[in-house]
């Protein structure tokens, strides 16, 4: 795997978060990149006699690789849709939410309930397996990942994402996240998946 470098994000229009909260979160993201690059550099498969599922350096490295790589992808999706721009819902995401959840308020209540129930991540996704949209949560970066589920709206609910600004008040943090959610980014993700915008995947 090629070496990965951190992407830059413009948080200048993000409201109700302090620069300290955002910069500390971004710094955490860069450490996942350092981790993945280190694992890829040091991973070896030289002696199969030392490879086993109870304990081996390859096992440890493989576990770290999936943890860190998923953490990188999820944080990039999160930072990308947290801009403070285009915060009024419109377009494909508006149609999807009305069709699937009946109304934006119904969607928000369900999303928030899952956000308060999980330990790591919550997202609205489009599942390519059955062509359905649904909300699901993960307890950690690499625990509960749903195969084929393409993330559309991604919210980090680890405490590190809000503790500096909101203490333990995750409910308020969820509200604030949605006041900064960039629906242009979300629409780009949906339109790409539906082949309405034949271009590079927006999160690459
Ligand atoms: Fe995070």
UniProtKB/TrEMBL annotation:
Q: Which EC number(s) does the record attach to this protein?
A: 1.15.1.1
InterPro entries according to UniProt: Fe/Mn_Superoxide_Dismutase (IPR050265), Mn/Fe_SOD_C (IPR019832), Mn/Fe_SOD_N_sf (IPR036324), SOD_C_sf (IPR036314)
Query: Which keywords belong to this entry?
Result: Metal-binding, Oxidoreductase
Is Electron transport among the key words of this record?
A: no
Please list the residue ranges annotated as the Manganese/iron superoxide dismutase C-terminal domain: 91-189
* PANTHER family associated with the record: SUPEROXIDE DISMUTASE 2, SUPEROXIDE DISMUTASE [MN], MITOCHONDRIAL
| Enzyme class label | oxidoreductase
A Pfam family cross-referenced in the UniProt record is: Sod_Fe_C
Recorded family membership: Belongs to the iron/manganese superoxide dismutase family.
The answer to whether the entry has keyword Glycosyltransferase is no
| Residues passing through the membrane, by range | none
Listed Gene3D superfamilies: Iron/manganese superoxide dismutase, C-terminal domain
Q: What is this protein called?
A: superoxide dismutase
What terms describe the molecular function in GO for this protein? metal ion binding; superoxide dismutase activity
